[in-house]
Write a structure and sequence with these properties.
- The N and C termini lie far apart (147 Å).
- It is built from three helices and 35 strands.
- The chain is mostly beta strands and 464 residues long.
- The chain has helices at residues 406-417, 424-430, 448-458; strands spanning 19-29, 33-42, 50-59, 78-81, 85-91, 97-105, 117-119, 126-131, 136-138, 141-149, 154-161, 164-169, 174-179, 186-196, 201-203, 207-211, 219-224, 230-231, 234-242, 247-254, 257-262, 267-272, 279-289, 294-296, 300-304, 313-316, 328-335, 340-347, 353-354, 356-358, 361-366, 372-382, 387-396, 435-436, 439-440.
- The protein is elongated.
- The strands form nine sheets. Strands 9, 11, 12, 14, 15 and 16 form a six-stranded mixed β-sheet that branches.
- The chain folds into five domains: 7-119, Immunoglobulin-like; 126-211, Sandwich (Immunoglobulin-like), CATH 2.60.40.10; 219-304, Immunoglobulins (Immunoglobulin-like), CATH 2.60.40.10; 313-396, Sandwich (Immunoglobulin-like); 400-458, no CATH class.
Length: 464
């Protein structure tokens, strides 16, 4: 409650209105414990019957007026007699305190409270670096983890490298990213500071780390084959690779395509050149070290020249046989892994004749077929001289031995309209159309055209 002088004593309270000096210090006691000592000083009261002064204190959490406890000097109020200074010691640094002073006379009457003095809590936050650990080696980008706590609340944490502020974080968890590639290799000191709402500052212990970044790329070269070489079959591609720390992997490339990866010396692999076409190829290697540095070798240009031993493939479409025609159009396909040089058609032991080619399709019209069996050979040859053949036979029957009749024309018509199922013998005898330039060129089927040609032959208009 408020204190005031009784007027009949005439005590002047003016000089009690201001506390002149306030000192708050942290003193270590009992090892790891800390206590708050508050030094107070005020102007003296000059009244003749002044007997002394009393110091009042309380914590902010108290709902009562100046009911402070815990000071070495005792509970509130503390009588300091006629001194104008006082040290209130042993207070809890985690609490905030308010102080006031009163004067009292020889009759025990006290003045009102002086101006109050507020001392905020003075317990600094605890802060430490939890990662990396002291004396560790670091490289690349690392995470610096900091632990901070306070009795009231941490407002921010600062992270330092060699006492230079790097970053600030206001929200837990306090994790900072440090790119050690941005500094030179060597020893660095990491530290942190934590601040609370009262402005108290906690300082971490120092963490010493050694930055050991490897920025030297490996040296790598293709040692075999040599540039300009002509190769074939299975070729051993060899590379040499060195590094100041250590080579972790060597990759081999052929014209930009990764062909092999080797993790230890000797660095080589077998290249099957028969799996690629003949031509010019570019070889190079890439080497990597344990920290991810890499280097690429110079290009080596080689020529693949493998002998072509693959024969072409050749087919012939079904022919019309037996037949009465002495000519027929033949066709089929021919393919090769490189390039075809020719497709020829040979009848019996006659001279092979080149067929016409349209991409992979060939065709040829044979003529002058003789009575009986005509053996036909189709031969495909590629640019390397490899060749393959396929054969067929066309049997030519002499229709003049049995003259066609009106009955044959009627039978052909019945077959054409589907009322009679044709036999092979009937097909051989009745398939005579079309007639081109006076020559019967059977087309492999019996239709109304064959019936007309047969009738024309019977009446003497067409000779077969």
């Amino acid at each position: 409650m408020a204190k005031e002088w009784r007027k009949e004593h005439g005590m002047n309270t003016k000089l009690l209105s201001t506390v002149v000096i306030l000192i708050a210090v942290m003193l270590g006691v009992h090892g790891s414990s800390w206590a708050l000592n508050v030094g107070l000083q005020w102007d003296a009261n000059t009244e003749a019957d002044l007997a002394g002064y009393k110091v009042y204190y309380k914590t902010d959490s108290s709902t009562l007026s100046y009911d402070g406890v815990g000071a070495v000097e005792g509970v509130s109020p503390i009588d300091v007699h006629n001194l104008t200074t006082a040290t209130i010691s042993g207070l809890d640094p985690s609490l905030s305190y308010t102080f006031a002073v009163t004067a009292y006379n020889t009759n025990g009457v006290e003045s009102v409270y002086s101006d109050t003095v507020y001392v905020p809590e003075s317990q600094a936050p605890t802060v430490s670096i939890t990662s990396p650990t002291n004396s560790s080696n670091v490289s690349g980008t690392i995470s610096v983890s900091i632990s901070a706590a306070d009795n009231v609340g941490v407002t921010r944490v600062e992270y330092y490298v060699n006492n230079v502020l790097q970053a600030t974080d206001t929200v837990s968890p306090y994790v900072f990213s440090w790119d050690t590639l941005s500094v030179s290799p060597g020893v660095y000191t990491l530290s942190a500071r934590a601040y609370d709402t009262a402005g108290n500052i906690g300082q971490s212990g120092n963490i010493s780390v050694t930055v050991m970044n490897d920025v030297t790329a490996p040296a790598v070269a293709i040692s075999s084959p040599s540039t300009g070489a002509t190769v074939s079959g299975a070729v051993t591609v060899t590379a040499s690779a060195t590094d100041n720390v250590g080579v972790s992997r060597v990759e081999f490339y052929e014209s930009g395509i990764l062909r092999a990866a080797v993790n230890s010396a000797p660095y080589s692999y077998s290249w099957n050149t028969t799996a690629v076409s003949n031509g010019t190829y570019t070889l190079y290697a890439k080497a990597y070290d344990n920290t991810g540095n890499s280097a690429q070798s110079a290009n080596v240009s080689v020529t693949v020249n493998n002998a072509d031993t693959t024969v072409p493939t050749v087919t012939i479409n079904p022919v019309t046989s037996p037949t009465t025609a002495t000519s027929q159009i033949l066709s089929g396909t021919a393919n090769d892994n490189t390039a075809l040089a020719s497709v020829t058609v040979q009848i019996g032991t006659g001279t092979p004749v080149a067929a016409e080619r349209y991409g992979t399709v060939w065709s040829y019209t044979v003529s002058g077929l003789v009575m009986g069996t005509n053996n036909i050979t189709i031969k495909a040859t590629d640019s390397s001289g490899n060749s393959s053949t396929t054969t067929t036979a066309i049997i030519v029957e002499n229709i003049q031995s049995t003259s066609l009749t009106v009955s044959d024309a009627l039978l052909a018509l019945q077959i054409a309209v589907g009322t009679v199922t044709m036999t092979n013998d009937q097909k051989s005898r009745l398939d005579v159309a079309p007639v081109i330039n006076g020559v019967s060129v059977p087309n492999g089927k019996v239709d109304t055209g064959d019936a007309i040609v047969i009738l024309s032959n019977v009446v003497g208009k067409i000779a077969l």
